[in-house]
Specification:
The chain contains seven helices and seven strands, in the order E-H-E-H-E-H-H-E-H-E-H-E-E-H. By secondary structure, the protein is α/β, with parallel strands linked by helices. A seven-stranded mixed β-sheet has the order 3-2-1-4-5-6-7, covered by helices on one side. Helix 1 runs parallel beside helix 7 and helix 6 packs across helix 7. It is globular and about 45 Å long. The termini are close together. About 35% of the residues are buried. The structure holds 5-O-phosphono-beta-D-ribofuranosylamine. 5-O-phosphono-beta-D-ribofuranosylamine binds next to helix 1 and strand 5.
Length: about 190
């Protein structure tokens, strides 16, 4: 079995989508959902799917406790699905080319610190962009700067609110994120 470990901070629609996608897979399983937010809805989503969860604080992320937990669970791929904190260098180095993130825009546009969730879509609306999309990329020490794995775009000329843009982007995320995860895991030895 290849193991996926998910990190998330919020609602968890991507986590739920990934859990459903791999539920009936004999070669790939989600071993745990890690969250920095004890109130995150994603924890209930994981519990509903009988996937163990682990909640940590800023200290735990940087003092080696999260890393120790990862070393115990031995994931083949770490997937950030709406995770809002920066991954510390010790974890990024330990799991080089094994951590991926999804960003709800076409990087390098609308990336970097503060560019998350509705902030992204509101900026895109304000700037009158005609298209947006998703970027799935490897994680390095800097926000949104690792090598790109996949980008997909969508026209938004018909959108007049940030919520409409968000819905189009979320549809792309739900379609492509599990497929990319599956392909990456299948390409591992
Ligand atoms: C997604 O838009 C993802 O791209 C971003 O955070 C959002 C998470 O949404 N990084 P959800 O919690 O999966 O619903």
């Amino acid at each position: 079995m290849k193991k996926i470990l998910l990190f998330a901070s919020g609602t968890g629609s991507n986590v739920e989508n990934i859990l459903k996608y791999f539920k009936i897979n004999n070669e790939i399983e989600v071993v745990s959902v890690f969250s920095n937010n004890p109130k995150a809805l994603v924890l209930a989503v994981a519990a509903h799917h009988n996937v163990p969860t682990y909640v940590f604080d800023k200290e735990g992320l940087t003092d080696g406790r999260v890393l120790n937990k990862l070393l115990t669970l031995r994931p083949d791929l770490i997937v950030l699905a709406g995770f809002l904190w920066k991954m510390p260098e010790q974890i990024v180095q330990q799991y080089s080319n094994k951590i991926i993130n999804i960003h709800p825009a076409l990087l390098p546009k609308y990336g970097g610190k503060g560019m998350y969730g509705m902030n992204v879509h509101e900026s895109i609306l304000t700037n009158g962009e005609v298209e947006t999309g998703i970027t799935i990329h490897y994680v390095n020490e800097h926000y949104d700067e690792g090598t790109y794995i996949l980008q997909r775009s969508v026209g938004i000329e018909d959108c007049s609110t940030a919520q409409e843009i968000a819905a189009k982007v979320q549809a792309l995320e739900h379609l492509y994120f599990p497929q990319v995860i599956e392909q990456l895991l299948k390409s591992l030895p």
